[in-house]
Each structure stands twice: as structure tokens, then as C-alpha cells.
Amino acid sequence: MRSIPFLSSAALVVALAGCAPVGSESLSLGDVQDCSGVSVVVNYGILSDGLTLQCVNLLEESAVAQQVLTFAGFELEGTGTYGDQVVCRVAGLPSATEPFTVEGEEPHLESCADMPPAFAYWALWIKDGDASEWTYAQEGAGTLELQSGDSIGLAFSTGGATPLPTDP
Fold this sequence. Notes:
Blueprint: E1 3-4, H1 9-12, E2 27-29, E3 38-43, E4 51-58, E5 63-64, H2 65-71, E6 76-77, E7 89-90, E8 121-127, E9 135-137, E10 145-146, E11 151-157
Parallel strand pairs: 3-11
Antiparallel strand pairs: 1-9, 2-4, 3-4, 5-10, 6-7, 8-9, 8-11
């Protein structure tokens, strides 16, 4: 099993390790409405309106989550202290130049120098091909192996309960 039902706020931060280059020859974009590959969902929460969906077909047995996310168009950025072991930005969000506000907190400008704060971080979710519910990923996007039929999601959490990737 690749997921656990509960992690602390610090552990929810998406960890990346051993990032390999994307092998475009082993991936292709698929039909979002009838995805036979890996369904990718990114929920930007307060950072941007709506959800972004993508389908990535695997032309081999499996692929590393970071490769799938990058191929789907979601560039990941780590931190100065932890490198690619912690996701700080997804597709340039949160912005490096524009602060954002989380209810009950002072406006925050994410520098990606260190660990993102517990009140504003990216969480990685997984839904195995046979599962009906999203669960937190047990490992980071740099090592998490995906197979056709799986779903992967990133959701920007702003304190309290972390939203599911598919939450409006």
C-alpha cells in the first residue's frame, strides 16, 4: 500500500527525492474525460481559481510521479534547504513576488528558502487504481511509482483540514 490515512502537517509537505529526468518517449497525453493512464489533478486552492486536470498515458509499466506531473505541465520547485525533497511551488505558485493571505495569518511571501509554513503548503494525494478515495501519499513525488489507472493530486493546503485535490 502506498498511502496512509493521516500524517502530521509537517509530514504532509510533498517530499521529492531522486528526481530522474522525464522520459517523454515513455509518456503521452491522453483524454481527460476517458483517462486510461494516470489522472492528474491540481487544486491550487486560494492561489488560483478552479482545478486543473490532465491525463498522462504510460507507455511502460510504471512511471515516477514527478515525471508524470512534469510531463502534464506542472513544474515543481523545491526549497533552498531541502532541495527537491519538499515541494514549494507548483507551476510557479505560490508566487515568489506576490504575498498571499490565509485567514488568521499575516500575509505571506513564499521564498522557498526553507520549509513552507504549516498554514500554507502543497499536499500530495494518491488514489490507487482500485481505490475509491484519495489518501495522502506515503512517499514523495520523486520516488512514488504510478501505474495506469492511478490518480495523483496536488492540493494547496491553507491550515486546518487539507483539501482533496477534487474539492472545489
